[in-house]
Amino acid sequence: MAKAFYRLQKFLRRTQFLLFFLTAAYLMAGSLLLLQRTRLVIQQGSHGTSANQALMVPDEMTRVGIADPRALQNPHPGPGLLVGMDVLQEPALDQQHSPRWLVSRNSELRQLRRRWFHRFISDQEPMQTAGFKVIKHTAEHKGTYIGCFTDDSRERTLKGAVFYDLRKMTVAHCQEACAERAYTYAGLVYGAECYCGNMLPATPSKPEECNSECKGEKGSVCGGVNRLSVYRVEELQAGARRRRNVIYRGCFRAPENLTDTFPASLIQPNLTVEMCSEFCSKKEFPLAVIREQECYCGYPTGRFSLRDGADGLRCSRTHNTSSAAEGKYCLVYQTPVQDTRCTDRKFLSTKSKVFVALSSFPGAGNTWARHLIEHATGYYTGSYYFDGALYNKGFKGEKDHWRSRRTICVKTHESGKTEIEMFDSAILLIRNPYKSLMAEFNRKYAGHLGYATDRNWKSKEWPDFVNSYASWWASHVLDWLKYGKRLLIVHYEDLKQSLIPKLREMVEFLNVTVTEDRLLCVENNRDGNFKRSGAKQKDFEPFTQEMKDLINRYILMVDEALRGRNFTGLPREYVPR
């Protein structure tokens, strides 16, 4: 009996061990599978959403109806107002969160936030700086490493051009950018910020204090905390120098006293545009002004604002009038040098008492408006979302919590009573829906700077996109008109055409005082880093007549709602198309 009991006990012990082993193996296998799936999700997220993920529109939404204009008495759109089946429907204004296009949009925003979160996590990976040890220069670069210098953010020596790449900055990337802008030195700080200039910083530092590895290149030094790694830029070949971006600004009436207006000048027989541009670039001025054999360098100022151009014939030597001979007119060129009078930005030192939104429909120019506001006020703007691409290019407010109140205003595309009433006031940016829809479609399929392919435009995604997003364009404006507490309406087209007057109006709305020279600097740097190059013309009309009828009705609806609130109506170019 005892022997049988012993055998049973021995068997149970073995079984217990076997069960423990199998359980551990199961858990390990499950963990490995989970890690593999997580990795796959992150990789997919970094490539953006697929066409099917980007916008999930059910089959019955392929046709959109327009509501009775009487719905404008209550400007919050419901599913009957903005999304219909095959017939016109009465608006159901109380069903605020039920439209299928809104559910689809919220699903898309959640996908965007997940992708941005993964990018955020990847940005937080610790730099391999190994304490305060000096990082060896293992990577090969053009140019020569000069040394480590103290970086004073309040008074930088290398301030000719400034740009950021908080994920992919390399020494070569910084050097090439500075060389294209005709600078002698390239300096890097914090592993991700690039500064250009023609004079070395005054205060050298210990080599080991430059201990930040470049974000995009292992083994390369990109400064440190308040420390600048400075490289001498390799001189471009003559052909490359000629290709530098020197832009003709026009013919202007010369100020009465040029020497008082412009800080630097050169008198040179047989003066050429290239000679004057090179001279002003070395002096780190963004404008090169030519009058006969005289070259002047400076900035746009109140004395010389570049607003009132003259007929180009007045500056032509082949049409040398008496006024031109007397030196009353001059030619103006934009050098590769950046105007840095408005590039310094920071967070608010104390929390803002007024919570201001910068609200727009996607594709309406919100990023461009943020660029203008940041450079005009000198303060960062925040965002309700997190866009890694914007953060990596210098919009540091992207990583700041949107409710921190440390930014001058907060970007949002949200609508609805709850989301709007969180803000004390708002700048509502409105753009032509035809242009907004095309811009957002380009962004969805090709990023901030790319263009969707012809295949995208001719696929079923485009009509589904228009059917869903055209209604969102209208509902966004109508919601903010209804629930917004204090609004400043800005039309994208007006801002583009009359930049300084409209920007001054926006800055005053934000309760910030700025100088005229700073606004002129913003005008000189008006495009920013997220302007699509050129206007890629398509050889076909992307909007069908059915789409145009739909969009035009929404335009008339929004125009009537704006006028009903005593705001200026939509610009005439919006309707009809």
Automatic annotation (TrEMBL):
Q: Which residues form a coiled coil?
A: none
Q: Which residues cross the membrane?
A: 17-35
Q: Which Gene3D superfamilies match?
A: P-loop containing nucleotide triphosphate hydrolases
> MF terms per GO, please?
sulfotransferase activity
Q: Does the keyword Lyase apply?
A: no
Q: Where do the WSC domain residues begin and end?
A: 142-234, 245-342
Highest rank taxon of the organism = Eukaryota
Protein keywords: Membrane, Repeat, Transmembrane, Transmembrane helix
Matching InterPro entries: P-loop_NTPase (IPR027417), Sialate-O-sulfotransferase (IPR051589), Sulfotransferase_dom (IPR000863), WSC_carb-bd (IPR002889)
Question: Has keyword Secreted?
Answer: no
What the record says about family reads: Belongs to the WSCD family.
Name assigned to this protein: WSCD1 protein
